[in-house]
Write a structure and sequence with these properties.
It contains 9 helices and no strands. It folds into 2 domains: 85 residues, no CATH class; 98 residues, no CATH class. About 10% of the residues have low confidence. By secondary structure, it is mostly helical. Helix 1 runs antiparallel to helix 2, helix 1 runs parallel beside helix 4 and helix 4 packs across helix 5.
């Protein structure tokens, strides 16, 4: 036998499912707000059927699409399904993966100076930069800063160093250590400012 809470539970489950691309804390906040609104409305208007209250709230798909648009993850003009699918596909990679790839690109080159070390270093750096740019965990400014400080600037320094006539030894080690510190510092900063 169904209880009166079943339509509410089904409605909230539908909103949660449609809003799966939202960050977990934002999705829980949305569900809590809706549950509170339903409860307050039921207390204020006990004679109104629960179906009417849920109809007044609107379609779960529309509510999720609006929340996604407010988060900046969806297009208000797109359908709820398409706006929910794109961020869900992009956010599958854990935020630690691009940061580790960008940070570990230099040790590959330092530990294995002959092939395949530099090749792996370049592959890690490019893949890490692409994963960083397509992630939903950072804003556009944070992504741009991260790519500049972990991919472009170190690549420019290493290329300049290799093309110069500077001999190896202590200056090369110092340049590599400073570059490694820059990579690790930027990765730590990106980890701190990421979105849940």
């Amino acid at each position: 036998m169904k209880t009166s809470a079943d339509p509410v539970r089904d409605y909230l489950s539908a909103v949660e499912r449609e809003g799966s691309a939202l960050p977990a804390n934002r999705r829980q906040e949305l569900l809590a707000d809706l549950a509170e609104h339903i409860e307050v409305t039921r207390a204020e208007r006990p004679d109104v059927a629960i179906g009417e209250i849920l109809a007044e709230l609107g379609d779960p798909r529309t509510i999720a699409a609006t929340a996604l648009a407010e988060e900046g993850n969806g297009d208000a003009g797109a359908s709820a399904r398409s706006s929910a699918d794109a961020p869900a596909r992009r956010g599958k990679v854990h935020p630690l993966v691009p940061l580790l790839m960008l940070t570990l690109s230099l040790p590959f080159v330092m530990i294995f100076p002959d092939l395949p070390g530099p090749l792996f270093g370049v592959l890690f750096r490019v893949t890490g930069a692409v994963l960083l740019c397509t992630s939903v965990h950072w804003t556009a400014v944070q992504k741009t800063t991260g790519v500049l400080l972990t991919a472009i600037l170190p690549s420019a320094v290493i290329t300049t160093w290799n093309l110069s006539d500077a001999p190896g030894g202590t200056p090369a080690l110092l340049a590599n250590l400073v570059t490694l510190a820059l990579l690790a510092g930027t990765a730590a900063w990106l980890w701190r400012v990421r979105r849940a």
